[in-house]
Design goal:
The complex is a heterodimer of chains A (113) and B (116). By secondary structure, chain A is mainly β. Chain A has a single domain, classed as Sandwich (Immunoglobulin-like). Chain A is built from no helices and 11 strands. In chain A, strand 7 and strand 8 form a beta hairpin. Chain A is globular, with a radius of gyration of 13 Å. Chain B has one domain: Immunoglobulins (Immunoglobulin-like). Helices cover 0% and strands 53% of the residues of chain B. In chain B, the strands form 2 sheets. In chain B, strands 2, 4, 5, 9, 10 and 11 form a 6-stranded mixed β-sheet that branches. A 5-stranded antiparallel β-sheet of chain B has the order 1-3-8-7-6, with no helix packed on it. Chain B is globular and about 40 Å long. In chain B, 34% of the residues are buried. The chains are: A mainly beta (113), B mainly beta (116). At the A-B interface, strand 4, strand 5, strand 9 and strand 10 of A face strand 5, strand 9 and strand 10 of B.
Protein backbone atom coordinates (compact mmCIF):
# COMPACT_ATOMS: atom_id res chain seq x y z
CA UNK A 1 0.00 0.00 0.00
CA UNK A 2 1.44 3.35 -1.03
CA UNK A 3 1.84 5.92 1.70
CA UNK A 4 0.83 9.56 1.79
CA UNK A 5 2.67 11.51 -0.87
CA UNK A 6 3.27 15.23 -1.14
CA UNK A 7 4.46 17.44 -3.95
CA UNK A 8 6.73 19.30 -4.23
CA UNK A 9 9.23 18.25 -1.59
CA UNK A 10 10.75 21.73 -1.59
CA UNK A 11 9.55 25.09 -2.84
CA UNK A 12 11.37 28.40 -2.76
CA UNK A 13 9.35 31.46 -3.74
CA UNK A 14 9.48 35.18 -3.27
CA UNK A 15 7.20 37.14 -1.01
CA UNK A 16 3.97 37.96 -2.82
CA UNK A 17 4.05 34.94 -5.11
CA UNK A 18 1.59 32.06 -5.09
CA UNK A 19 2.39 28.45 -4.25
CA UNK A 20 0.22 25.36 -4.40
CA UNK A 21 1.05 22.27 -2.39
CA UNK A 22 -0.44 18.91 -3.19
CA UNK A 23 -1.19 15.90 -1.02
CA UNK A 24 -2.27 12.44 -2.14
CA UNK A 25 -3.62 10.45 0.82
CA UNK A 26 -3.56 6.69 1.20
CA UNK A 27 -6.21 5.17 -1.03
CA UNK A 28 -9.48 4.67 0.83
CA UNK A 29 -8.71 7.17 3.58
CA UNK A 30 -11.61 9.57 3.96
CA UNK A 31 -9.87 11.81 6.48
CA UNK A 32 -7.18 14.18 5.28
CA UNK A 33 -5.32 16.67 7.44
CA UNK A 34 -2.88 19.51 6.87
CA UNK A 35 -0.33 20.51 9.50
CA UNK A 36 2.52 22.99 9.51
CA UNK A 37 5.77 23.28 11.40
CA UNK A 38 7.34 26.69 11.44
CA UNK A 39 11.05 26.71 12.25
CA UNK A 40 11.66 26.08 15.94
CA UNK A 41 8.00 25.66 16.77
CA UNK A 42 5.70 22.71 17.26
CA UNK A 43 3.70 21.04 14.51
CA UNK A 44 0.34 22.80 14.28
CA UNK A 45 -2.96 21.64 12.86
CA UNK A 46 -4.33 23.60 9.90
CA UNK A 47 -7.43 21.78 8.76
CA UNK A 48 -9.28 18.49 8.39
CA UNK A 49 -11.25 17.16 5.45
CA UNK A 50 -13.73 14.32 5.59
CA UNK A 51 -13.98 13.25 1.99
CA UNK A 52 -14.46 16.52 0.12
CA UNK A 53 -15.92 18.48 3.05
CA UNK A 54 -14.00 20.70 5.42
CA UNK A 55 -14.66 19.28 8.87
CA UNK A 56 -12.48 21.67 10.83
CA UNK A 57 -10.48 24.59 9.49
CA UNK A 58 -9.83 26.27 12.81
CA UNK A 59 -6.06 26.17 12.34
CA UNK A 60 -5.91 28.05 9.06
CA UNK A 61 -3.87 31.18 9.81
CA UNK A 62 -5.68 33.63 7.54
CA UNK A 63 -7.52 34.00 4.25
CA UNK A 64 -4.32 33.80 2.24
CA UNK A 65 -4.55 30.05 2.68
CA UNK A 66 -7.04 28.05 0.62
CA UNK A 67 -7.42 24.29 0.85
CA UNK A 68 -9.47 22.14 -1.47
CA UNK A 69 -10.20 18.46 -1.86
CA UNK A 70 -12.27 18.08 -4.97
CA UNK A 71 -13.75 14.62 -5.38
CA UNK A 72 -12.52 13.56 -1.98
CA UNK A 73 -9.19 12.29 -3.26
CA UNK A 74 -6.10 14.47 -3.37
CA UNK A 75 -5.95 17.86 -1.70
CA UNK A 76 -4.25 21.14 -2.53
CA UNK A 77 -3.20 23.94 -0.22
CA UNK A 78 -2.67 27.28 -1.93
CA UNK A 79 -0.93 30.22 -0.35
CA UNK A 80 -1.64 33.51 -2.09
CA UNK A 81 0.14 35.84 -1.66
CA UNK A 82 2.92 34.21 0.33
CA UNK A 83 4.51 36.06 3.22
CA UNK A 84 7.84 35.47 4.97
CA UNK A 85 6.15 33.94 8.02
CA UNK A 86 4.59 31.23 5.86
CA UNK A 87 7.97 29.49 5.60
CA UNK A 88 8.02 26.08 7.20
CA UNK A 89 7.30 22.44 6.56
CA UNK A 90 3.75 21.55 5.56
CA UNK A 91 2.67 18.03 6.40
CA UNK A 92 -0.31 16.13 5.14
CA UNK A 93 -1.79 13.13 6.92
CA UNK A 94 -4.64 10.75 6.28
CA UNK A 95 -6.67 8.18 8.19
CA UNK A 96 -9.58 5.83 7.68
CA UNK A 97 -13.04 6.66 8.95
CA UNK A 98 -13.45 5.64 12.56
CA UNK A 99 -9.72 4.92 12.92
CA UNK A 100 -7.70 7.44 14.85
CA UNK A 101 -4.20 6.70 13.62
CA UNK A 102 -2.99 9.28 11.15
CA UNK A 103 -0.32 8.49 8.57
CA UNK A 104 1.91 11.35 7.54
CA UNK A 105 3.49 12.32 4.28
CA UNK A 106 7.11 13.45 4.00
CA UNK A 107 6.18 17.12 4.02
CA UNK A 108 6.79 20.07 1.72
CA UNK A 109 9.45 22.51 2.83
CA UNK A 110 8.33 26.00 1.82
CA UNK A 111 10.78 28.88 1.90
CA UNK A 112 9.50 32.39 1.25
CA UNK A 113 12.25 34.93 0.51
CA UNK B 1 -6.08 26.26 24.96
CA UNK B 2 -4.73 22.73 24.95
CA UNK B 3 -1.00 22.55 25.50
CA UNK B 4 1.23 19.53 25.06
CA UNK B 5 4.67 19.76 26.58
CA UNK B 6 7.55 17.37 26.14
CA UNK B 7 10.52 17.06 28.41
CA UNK B 8 13.36 17.09 27.66
CA UNK B 9 13.56 18.80 24.28
CA UNK B 10 17.03 17.50 23.62
CA UNK B 11 18.58 14.33 24.93
CA UNK B 12 22.10 13.13 24.36
CA UNK B 13 22.74 9.69 25.74
CA UNK B 14 25.25 6.91 25.61
CA UNK B 15 24.47 3.59 24.06
CA UNK B 16 23.12 0.93 26.43
CA UNK B 17 21.71 3.57 28.81
CA UNK B 18 18.06 3.94 29.74
CA UNK B 19 16.05 7.14 29.64
CA UNK B 20 12.47 8.44 29.64
CA UNK B 21 10.80 11.17 27.62
CA UNK B 22 7.79 12.80 29.26
CA UNK B 23 4.70 14.21 27.60
CA UNK B 24 2.29 16.31 29.65
CA UNK B 25 -0.97 17.69 28.32
CA UNK B 26 -3.39 20.20 29.73
CA UNK B 27 -6.87 18.89 28.99
CA UNK B 28 -8.84 15.68 29.09
CA UNK B 29 -7.99 13.21 26.38
CA UNK B 30 -7.79 9.45 26.17
CA UNK B 31 -6.01 9.26 22.86
CA UNK B 32 -2.31 9.85 22.59
CA UNK B 33 0.21 9.05 19.88
CA UNK B 34 3.95 8.83 19.65
CA UNK B 35 5.71 9.53 16.38
CA UNK B 36 9.30 9.31 15.27
CA UNK B 37 10.86 11.59 12.67
CA UNK B 38 14.23 11.12 11.02
CA UNK B 39 15.77 14.25 9.45
CA UNK B 40 13.99 15.21 6.26
CA UNK B 41 11.60 12.28 6.52
CA UNK B 42 7.97 11.72 7.35
CA UNK B 43 6.55 11.19 10.82
CA UNK B 44 6.42 7.48 11.51
CA UNK B 45 3.73 6.23 13.86
CA UNK B 46 5.22 4.37 16.85
CA UNK B 47 2.42 3.91 19.36
CA UNK B 48 -1.28 4.58 19.67
CA UNK B 49 -2.47 4.76 23.29
CA UNK B 50 -6.24 4.73 23.64
CA UNK B 51 -7.03 4.26 27.31
CA UNK B 52 -5.86 5.00 30.81
CA UNK B 53 -3.13 2.62 31.85
CA UNK B 54 -2.32 1.59 28.28
CA UNK B 55 1.20 0.29 27.87
CA UNK B 56 2.75 -0.68 24.55
CA UNK B 57 6.20 -1.94 23.74
CA UNK B 58 8.13 -2.30 20.52
CA UNK B 59 11.74 -3.33 20.73
CA UNK B 60 13.64 -0.96 23.00
CA UNK B 61 10.77 1.51 23.24
CA UNK B 62 7.87 1.36 25.66
CA UNK B 63 5.07 3.91 25.91
CA UNK B 64 2.48 4.36 28.64
CA UNK B 65 -0.49 6.60 29.28
CA UNK B 66 -1.91 7.92 32.53
CA UNK B 67 -5.01 9.94 31.64
CA UNK B 68 -5.64 11.00 35.24
CA UNK B 69 -2.20 12.57 35.49
CA UNK B 70 -2.42 13.70 31.85
CA UNK B 71 0.98 12.17 31.29
CA UNK B 72 2.52 9.82 28.79
CA UNK B 73 6.03 8.45 28.91
CA UNK B 74 8.28 6.97 26.25
CA UNK B 75 10.92 4.82 27.86
CA UNK B 76 14.07 3.86 26.03
CA UNK B 77 15.88 0.75 27.20
CA UNK B 78 19.53 0.13 26.35
CA UNK B 79 19.67 2.80 23.66
CA UNK B 80 21.36 2.15 20.35
CA UNK B 81 22.51 4.62 17.70
CA UNK B 82 19.61 3.68 15.40
CA UNK B 83 17.19 5.26 17.85
CA UNK B 84 18.63 8.72 17.15
CA UNK B 85 15.70 10.79 15.83
CA UNK B 86 13.12 13.34 16.94
CA UNK B 87 10.19 11.95 18.90
CA UNK B 88 6.82 13.67 19.07
CA UNK B 89 3.85 13.00 21.25
CA UNK B 90 0.46 14.17 20.02
CA UNK B 91 -2.91 14.36 21.73
CA UNK B 92 -6.14 13.80 19.86
CA UNK B 93 -8.87 16.12 21.03
CA UNK B 94 -11.66 14.33 19.19
CA UNK B 95 -14.87 13.99 21.14
CA UNK B 96 -15.10 10.49 22.57
CA UNK B 97 -17.58 8.39 20.73
CA UNK B 98 -17.53 10.64 17.72
CA UNK B 99 -17.18 8.98 14.35
CA UNK B 100 -14.98 11.82 13.18
CA UNK B 101 -11.32 11.68 14.09
CA UNK B 102 -9.99 14.81 15.71
CA UNK B 103 -7.07 17.08 15.12
CA UNK B 104 -3.76 16.31 16.78
CA UNK B 105 -2.04 18.72 19.12
CA UNK B 106 1.70 18.08 19.10
CA UNK B 107 4.41 18.51 21.64
CA UNK B 108 7.55 20.38 20.68
CA UNK B 109 9.45 17.20 19.92
CA UNK B 110 12.40 15.61 21.70
CA UNK B 111 15.58 15.24 19.69
CA UNK B 112 17.40 12.12 20.81
CA UNK B 113 21.07 11.64 20.05
CA UNK B 114 22.59 8.31 20.97
CA UNK B 115 26.35 8.30 21.07
CA UNK B 116 28.49 5.17 20.76
Amino acid sequence: EAGVTQFPSHSVIEKGQTVTLRCDPISGHDNLYWYRRVMGKEIKFLLHFVKESKQDESGMPNNRFLAERTGGTYSTLKVQPAELEDSGVYFCASSRSGINEQFFGPGTRLTVL
Amino acid sequence: ELKVEQNPLFLSMQEEKNYTIYCNYSTTSDRLYWYRQDPGKSLESLFVLLSNGAVKQEGRLMASLDTKARLSTLHITAAVHDLSATYFCAVDIAVKGSSNTGKLIFGQGTTLQVKP
